Amino acid sequence: MRHLLSCVSFCGFLALAGGGPAWAQAPDAGGAAGGQANTDADFEAGFHLGNLLPDQIDGVTEIMGLGGVRAGMLIAPQTYTEAGLIMGNGEGQKWKNIHLDIRMDIPVESLVGLAYAGADMTYYSGIDTSDKVIFGGHVGGGVQAQVSGSIWFRGDMKFGFSPGTSLYFGFGLMWRLGGGGAGAGGG
Q1: Nearest CA to 45 among 160, 139, 178?
Q2: pLDDT tens-digit series, residues 39-66
């Protein structure tokens, strides 16, 4: 299973890095100018799968497949607060991470780039180590592409610090609901 997740994550990364598949999109009803993506949904929720690459984390030395859920709420134009849970285990290791972020969306043509920073609470245990709860933080970025209607594909790279350092690559789907779009309300 770990190798399958690694393969899926790697293929998703290649698709995003190389331009990947392009999804045809009709302009939004609000008339967003210049083919801009429909952004600023009031609420969003989704799931993701990916790999954690740990470094200097006591007892956690192997790449680990993780999965999680996240939800976000619009707090200002193109700015969201997000909360999520990422968890998994393998190779004698356990990882559970709860995070809270502030995210900025950056529309570029039909894609939406994103940058975020936030706080983490991580519950983990490694090989021959006891369970630990550590508070830390993270910064990250990614890209979203509208698949159809309110469904978006999202790819993330999240750099965490404390415990040790870690890099999480994740890919998943988001449902963006409510509100207008980039051009709603006569924009």
Answers
A1: 178
A2: 789 999 999 999 999 999 988 999 999 9
Closest alpha carbon to 176 in 150, 148, 141: 150
Q: Which helix (H) or strand (E) holds 55?
A: strand 43-55
8 A C-beta contact, residue 46 and residue 173: yes
Question: Could you tell me if 28 and 149 are in contact, meaning their C-beta atoms sit under 8 angstroms apart?
Answer: no
What's the token pair of residue 30? Answer: 């609000």
Q: Is the pTM of this model over 0.85?
A: no
Please enumerate in sequence order all residues whose Cβ is within 8 A of that of 32, keeping only pairs 6 or more positions apart, or say none: 38, 181, 182, 183, 187
CA distance 6 to 2: 6
